[in-house]
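fyi for ur records
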Amino acid sequence: MLRDMRTRFGGSYWGYVLVVFWPVAHILLMVAIMVFRGIQSPTGDDPILFVATGAVPALVFQYTSREAMKAILVNRPLTYYPQVKIFDIMLARFLVEAIKGFQGLIIVIVVLLILGVSPMPAHPATAIAAYMMALLWGLGMGAVNIGIMSLFPGWLIGYLGVTIAIYLTSGIFFLPHMMPGELYDMMKWNPMVQIIEWVRIAYNPQLGVSVDYFYVIAWAAGSLSVGLLMERTVVRRFS
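which gave:
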């Protein structure tokens, strides 16, 4: 973990702070745009809270899945030591991403408090569970991406298109269930749509949406299982 952090952040504490603050700055920029344009929250609450409840889980998944896939690429020299396995590198990166994600969440909560917005959901346990699912799915997709990259190195760039598509169709700035029924049914196949709704239900139980919790958990646990299976087979074969 220490080597991953030092090589990734230039051996500087400021480098690590910058990476932690980067998704937070992303969220604050979106909030600023929404407030500047005078866009009202569709749920009737504070627009800052509305954007945050959608952006935080989406960015946790996006940054975690994208950075986790770089673990082997950045730390490949470690595999020259017989006692260091590819799984060790993956686990170290996963732990770093999990810690970074929680630090970013704490910073967002502090910023919301400074802005006079209460970040406390009506059901805290529900919000925490949704956030954990976003993190777990991000780690799972990161593990899958590591396996794909071992076969197709160009996937590092190709995955950017996938994350952008997920980001734009997840309902960060709008409520998906307000869309036409046929379109909403298609959007629900995107697990991030349901994770964001999961978070927003924690803040507004009267939102009027239903989350397929089994579907989301299956995606998160399934992707992680597939990624670890690929580490045992595909990654080791092409490393």
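Residues 2-238 form one domain. thats all i got for now
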